[in-house]
């Protein structure tokens, strides 16, 4: 059964291998140059004393490829749907299920092998894409000093996304029994799940750290205030995922209003008078949790994929004809 | 002896509609069984239930003495050629044969290869580019090379032109001669089955209207014609299946255990076609008018 599943999967796998090869060549050719750029501009900017323009120039190089790469990673997960939705639905559409389910292989084994083989392939392809992209982007990510904004495009989470997209596609195809409507429905479902997890689940994978400390301004930090509201601190927490960073006075009240204009001490950036009186209230996820978060989120999507897969097997055993 | 197919009160419901309802029948092994019935009689549903493609809503079904599709061993015992003979359009004939070899432990690769050769088909050709007749032959090859004990075919020739139809049925007969497999093939046309089947099951609105050995059926039915008379006066061993009357004449199709001795009748043998149509008509009349009688005068 594995051999037959592989035979049916040969076109898709050839396309995927081709795309992987093209990506590998493009990234492999440009990657070393990026490292070279990094070494000659950003790494040595400390000596020139003008790091901000050096990093800006560096970050703007290969802008198109950077964006393209991130798009490809996102698409790669969605391609799971293109592999998943037709897996059973196309057989039902063309009637070939009546051919293959009357060979000497039980339907349960048939679906289990297909889910396993194509599902693993989806994960492998997504993982390889992500690995290449993570490697290629590492100089940029080092300069922008924060991995959380590109959380979904790096590391291991794309593997979970791909597995879920695939299994969801199969499950929806099994219910709807038609390829195109199944693809569209699975796409909507996938996007909803991704957005929901990103907005509501990811920030709370672990309780955020609440940190109150004396305000100590360093280079790279600044203030932000809208409409004379509370003042918050921007920058200065490399790699952390900052939810809020407010300034409070000694009594714990938010500092706002026109304080920025009057507060000479603030403008003097951290004079002793300031730091003694004002405090910084920071709510954030530390950079050290990045890989734990990657693992949690991947586990969530793998879990969803397993649920979808189990549903397919269950449904095939009792409902399909 | 175990029946090839044995059902008891078998039913399958889709939503509110019964595709097959309260079907009880027994089909013996070692025969070529024609399953005839009008469209919507439940033939396809019955065959799908028999290969385990669907599960019954009510009743029981045994195929070669076991539950249909129960595990790989039972699947291997039953070959199936589905309606419109589906194949993978993008795969070549050779790849279909490879599929057969991979998915069936009892696969007879030589037989499959030989048959494709005999049919003059190029194994490299994709089945999507084959004619309906050729595709049906490939589907039949797949089902035969599995070496099943029972081969079920659902309207295998319905979509074929007369020539392809004859060639297909010819192939089927060769299979029977060579491998002695029990065959059940369905059709809504008696003519398709007449040449090949030696056992007939007439299914009308999921009820078995007639089942029996073709030779015995033909030998026990007669067409009688003569001056108009009330058929209720016939001897007890003669059962009227179909009757039609004009002002002067009566024509009957009767089932009789013994010969027709009444000299008032002109007796003719019946064809299988007449027989099946008569039984289908009987079912229809029963349905519309439960009080059978002379009120069917036309």
Commentary on this structure:
- The complex is a heterodimer of chains A (321) and B (298).
- By secondary structure, chain A is mainly alpha-helical.
- In chain A, 66% of the residues lie in helices and 8% in strands.
- In chain A, strands 1-5-4 form a 3-stranded antiparallel beta sheet. In chain A, strands 2-3 form a two-stranded antiparallel ribbon.
- In chain A, strand 2 and strand 3 (232-234) form a beta hairpin.
- The longest helix of chain A has 38 residues, at 107-144.
- Chain B has 298 residues and is of the alpha/beta class.
- Chain B contains 9 helices and 13 strands.
- Chain B starts with a strand and ends in a 10-residue tail after the last helix.
- The longest helix of chain B has 18 residues, at 162-179.
- Chain B is elongated.
- In chain B, strands 5-6-7-3-8-9 form a 6-stranded mixed beta sheet, with helices on both faces.
- The interface between A and B is medium-sized, with 23 and 35 residues.
Brief rundown of the structure:
Chain A is mostly helical and 321 residues long.
| Number of H/I helices of chain B | 9
Strand order of the largest sheet of chain B: 5-6-7-3-8-9
Strand content of chain A: 5-15%
Low-confidence stretches of chain B: 288-298
Structural class of chain A: mainly alpha
Question: If helices are DSSP runs of H or I spanning 4 or more residues, what is the number of helices of chain A?
Answer: 13
Biggest beta-sheet profile of chain A: 3 strands, antiparallel
Percentage of residues in helical conformation of chain A = 55-70%
Residue-averaged pLDDT of chain B: 88
Helix and strand run of chain B: EEEHEHEHHHEHEHEEHEEEEH
The value of Rg of chain A in angstroms is 25 Å
